[in-house]
Amino acid sequence: MVDERDHDTSSSSLPSLSNHLADTTLGGSADVPVIDLSVSDEGFIVREVVKASEEWGVFQVVNHGIPTELMQQLQVAGKQFFDLPEKEKEAVAKEGGFEGYKRNYLGGIDNWDEHLFHRLSPPSVINYKYWPTNPPQYREVTEEYTKHVKRLTEKIFGWLSEGLGLPRVALSQSIGGDTAEYALRINFYPPSQHSELTIGAAAHSDMGAIALLVPNEVPGLQAFKDEQWFDLNYIDSAVVVILGDQLMRITNGRFKNVFHRAKSDRERVRISWPIFVAPRDDMSVGPLPELTGDDNPPKFETLLYKDYIDKKIKGWALEGLHSLLKPPQN
């Protein structure tokens, strides 16, 4: 799997976009959708997730079926890993690819980047070389959590498919079904005395299809809508669902790919556990024929996923060049 998490997404790599978004105002948090999946009326859930996907591209789900104790164990294991001495963390360091541990403090607006990243599924792509052996429970907890996240992802895809008038398996199959790749990135954001200036993750949309994220109790995730940044309130045991570029392209623009960013806290460590779901590199992805027609022609070209990634990265590079060549404004 190749995606933007294998590349520098600091603000310096997205100059025009970051400058534009930095000039926008901070909105509120009450309107970011929160959906209770324990509601007995499944039709209601379908309508709510579709509405959130059309209007926001991000929402939180509660009563989702992932055991709270398991989520707590996942967070304990992740924090224990980042609490280790640097030498021990380097045992699973990156070696040129995107998997492994990396610690990199970027310049510009003080963009912090410390994370652990590795594949989770399908079994054929897993390389346990990049999974920590310390803490000792890391693998067992992560594998069990992955099982639950995959079930929840399939449910969300099913509801979204139904809301589009498609078979429940349509969106899942559009990114490869059982061959779709799941990858975990644990993001570690240390405290910053200049938290109002420190961006833990610069504004971006995810290149894949969808991400399911669990944060610790320290707020910092923000979503962009209507020229404003909105805080996502921390809700204990909630899962944040973030739609990426491929769902937008598959649905011919009906669902949004939300721009989002993470900010550091002045006094507390912030950690997040997003699991990214994306097609295989050799999977062709584009608008579904069922969602296009004479009155709604395709807005996006069908591309191999790896070609889409290359095209977007090249777009970033050109944007950066244009920003450098642009004359200063007085």
Summarize, please.
It comes from Camelina sativa. The chain has 330 residues and is an alpha+beta fold. The chain has eight helices and 15 strands.
Explain this structure to me?
This is Probable flavonol synthase 5. It comes from Camelina sativa. Keywords: Iron, Metal-binding, Oxidoreductase. Belongs to the iron/ascorbate-dependent oxidoreductase family. The protein has 330 residues and is of the alpha+beta class. It is 30% helix and 24% strand. The protein contains 8 helices and 15 strands. It has an 8-stranded mixed sheet. A hairpin with a 2-residue loop joins strand 9 (221-225) and strand 10 (228-231). The longest helix is centred in the middle third of the chain and has 26 residues, at 138-163. The N and C termini lie far apart (44 Å). The model is unreliable at 1-20 (pLDDT under 50).
Keywords:
alpha+beta; Probable flavonol synthase 5; IPNS-like_sf; IPNS-like_FE2OG_OXY
- Main sheet attributes: strand count, strand direction, barrel closure: 8 strands, mixed
Low-confidence stretches: 1-20
The average pLDDT is 87
* Number of strand segments: 15
Instruction: State the separation between the terminal residues, measured CA to CA.
Output: 44 Å
List the helices and strands and how they pair.
Layout: H1 15-22, E1 25-26, E2 34-36, H2 42-55, E3 58-62, H3 68-82, H4 86-89, E4 100-105, E5 112-121, H5 138-163, H6 170-174, E6 181-189, E7 199-204, E8 210-215, E9 221-225, E10 228-231, E11 239-243, H7 245-250, E12 260-263, E13 270-278, E14 284-285, E15 303-304, H8 305-325
Parallel strand pairs: 1-10, 2-3
Antiparallel strand pairs: 3-11, 4-5, 5-6, 6-13, 7-12, 8-11, 8-13, 9-10, 9-12, 14-15
Helix pairs in contact: 2-5, 3-5
